[in-house]
Amino acid sequence: MSQLLTTRQAEELHKSIIAYLTSAELPNSASALREELGDAIALDDATIKKYEGLLEKKWTSVVRLQKKIMDLESRNAALQSELDSATPSSLSRRNQDPVSWLPRAPARHNLQSHRQPVTCVAFHPVFSSLASGSEDTTIKIWDWELGELERTVKGHTKAVLDVDYGGPRGGTLLASCSSDLTIKLWDPSDEYKNIRTLPGHDHSVSAVRFIPSGAAGSPMSGNLLVSASRDKTLRIWDVTTGYCVKTLQGHSDWVRDVAASPDGRFLFSGGNDQIPRLWDISSAETKATFLGHEHVVECVAFAPPTSYKYFTTLAGLRKPPPVSSSAEFVATGSRDKNIRLWDSRGTLIKTLGGHDNWVRAIIFHPGGKYLLSVSDDKTLRCWDLSQECKCVRTVTDAHGHFISCIRWAPSLITDGSVLNGEPGAGEPATPTAIMANGVKKDDSGGGVKGIRCVIATGSVDLNVRVFAS
């Protein structure tokens, strides 16, 4: 038999085996091996002591290295498939252009503190704060740049189901909703004090979103808030007074999710009745219904105007709608494992299949070219609208369990004042915050718009993860 080990290596191995057998209290086996080896090996007590743990150390390190090799091989395969599906233009622009940035493993931060599944996440519009809500009834505020927990906000008595930042200009608020039937407003500038509780829903409140005002100079700020509930209704609230100003009725079952259009004129909602609805806020009437899903609709989203050129091709239109129009196209994700893209009249444009379990949350890339989705199959998928909605990246095992939520850090807009931030109107935005995240001059003349290449996800594995460039 050919000898793989050198004489010295064989001697080391023999010593390690004898030392291991001795420490494991197997003296007969140890002496049998010593007898077989004869004079080839000399071992005293000191040498046995020296070699005692060596075999276990080598054994565990080999297993660890094998696992590392397997991880690297799977990562290599993922990168290769990504390379195969990439277009030359996306390859050349990827490094510098935030419009082409997509998340990749590993996450920059893995934030741990929640004691039960994480249900929701939301970014502060200006500062590096990230809020997460959980079934443990708490809201955690993190610094997503440093990856540190800043504070735990307590007040709800049951699971927190959604969180969102927004509100009046110069006075950003955090809104949360819960299975305890309430919506709460918290003031980030005053140590997240609970400044108002909005009762009124008759069952769990599953989603909450601030409605942008669309006003010039500060389009994303506004006093209105929309909530979706298991009581089958949507309610619109004035956060300055705490009054419910409108109740929208039409769904026949639990409303799971709601989104507001960027100009604050329309709402889009979906839930257990499997029929998403587009609402006109001013009339509180349903503008369109969307038929096609075969299971509960978990998530809804408005397509940003930056995506209209891609939707135009997908829908076979001759020219894209004006960028000033805010609710031209929408997307929905469902427990039927599919994502569907629609126009605002309820016409199905495309069905995106690929997830192996419920689709739990979707977001559009601010650049408009991609749609991102997370699912109970533990993956994060990126769909390229310019390539017939081909899945161009899959972050496998983005979490260790079902992924419940995903949010994109809001773009920074400056026209000489901080948008929606505590410093108040008129204070200059920090140039470093904008420059660090890839600046893009807004073609519509609305100041500088910086896409922040930062995404947060939350999961049943109790973790919040931050993916960043």
From TrEMBL:
<dbReference type="GO" id="GO:0051012">
    <property type="term" value="P:microtubule sliding"/>
</dbReference>
<dbReference type="InterPro" id="IPR056795">
    <property type="entry name" value="PAC1-like_LisH-like_dom"/>
</dbReference>
<dbReference type="InterPro" id="IPR015943">
    <property type="entry name" value="WD40/YVTN_repeat-like_dom_sf"/>
</dbReference>
<protein>
    <recommendedName>
        <fullName>Nuclear distribution protein nudF</fullName>
    </recommendedName>
</protein>
<feature type="repeat" description="WD">
    <location>
        <begin position="248"/>
        <end position="289"/>
    </location>
</feature>
<dbReference type="GO" id="GO:0005737">
    <property type="term" value="C:cytoplasm"/>
</dbReference>
<dbReference type="GO" id="GO:0000922">
    <property type="term" value="C:spindle pole"/>
</dbReference>
<dbReference type="GO" id="GO:0005875">
    <property type="term" value="C:microtubule associated complex"/>
</dbReference>
<feature type="repeat" description="WD">
    <location>
        <begin position="111"/>
        <end position="152"/>
    </location>
</feature>
<keyword id="KW-0131">Cell cycle</keyword>
<dbReference type="InterPro" id="IPR050349">
    <property type="entry name" value="WD_LIS1/nudF_dynein_reg"/>
</dbReference>
<keyword id="KW-0853">WD repeat</keyword>
<comment type="similarity">
    <text>Belongs to the WD repeat LIS1/nudF family.</text>
</comment>
<dbReference type="InterPro" id="IPR017252">
    <property type="entry name" value="Dynein_regulator_LIS1"/>
</dbReference>
<dbReference type="InterPro" id="IPR037190">
    <property type="entry name" value="LIS1_N"/>
</dbReference>
<dbReference type="InterPro" id="IPR001680">
    <property type="entry name" value="WD40_rpt"/>
</dbReference>
<keyword id="KW-0677">Repeat</keyword>
<dbReference type="Pfam" id="PF24951">
    <property type="entry name" value="LisH_PAC1"/>
</dbReference>
<keyword id="KW-0498">Mitosis</keyword>
<comment type="subunit">
    <text>Self-associates. Interacts with nudE and dynein.</text>
</comment>
<dbReference type="GO" id="GO:0000132">
    <property type="term" value="P:establishment of mitotic spindle orientation"/>
</dbReference>
<feature type="repeat" description="WD">
    <location>
        <begin position="324"/>
        <end position="343"/>
    </location>
</feature>
<keyword id="KW-0963">Cytoplasm</keyword>
<dbReference type="GO" id="GO:0005874">
    <property type="term" value="C:microtubule"/>
</dbReference>
<feature type="domain" description="PAC1-like LisH-like dimerisation">
    <location>
        <begin position="7"/>
        <end position="38"/>
    </location>
</feature>
<feature type="repeat" description="WD">
    <location>
        <begin position="352"/>
        <end position="386"/>
    </location>
</feature>
<keyword id="KW-0493">Microtubule</keyword>
<keyword id="KW-0813">Transport</keyword>
<dbReference type="GO" id="GO:0070840">
    <property type="term" value="F:dynein complex binding"/>
</dbReference>
<feature type="repeat" description="WD">
    <location>
        <begin position="198"/>
        <end position="247"/>
    </location>
</feature>
<feature type="repeat" description="WD">
    <location>
        <begin position="153"/>
        <end position="187"/>
    </location>
</feature>
<keyword id="KW-0132">Cell division</keyword>
<comment type="function">
    <text>Positively regulates the activity of the minus-end directed microtubule motor protein dynein. May enhance dynein-mediated microtubule sliding by targeting dynein to the microtubule plus end. Required for nuclear migration during vegetative growth as well as development. Required for retrograde early endosome (EE) transport from the hyphal tip. Required for localization of dynein to the mitotic spindle poles. Recruits additional proteins to the dynein complex at SPBs.</text>
</comment>
<dbReference type="GO" id="GO:0051301">
    <property type="term" value="P:cell division"/>
</dbReference>
<dbReference type="InterPro" id="IPR036322">
    <property type="entry name" value="WD40_repeat_dom_sf"/>
</dbReference>
<keyword id="KW-0175">Coiled coil</keyword>
<dbReference type="InterPro" id="IPR020472">
    <property type="entry name" value="WD40_PAC1"/>
</dbReference>
<dbReference type="InterPro" id="IPR019775">
    <property type="entry name" value="WD40_repeat_CS"/>
</dbReference>
<dbReference type="Pfam" id="PF00400">
    <property type="entry name" value="WD40"/>
</dbReference>
<keyword id="KW-0206">Cytoskeleton</keyword>
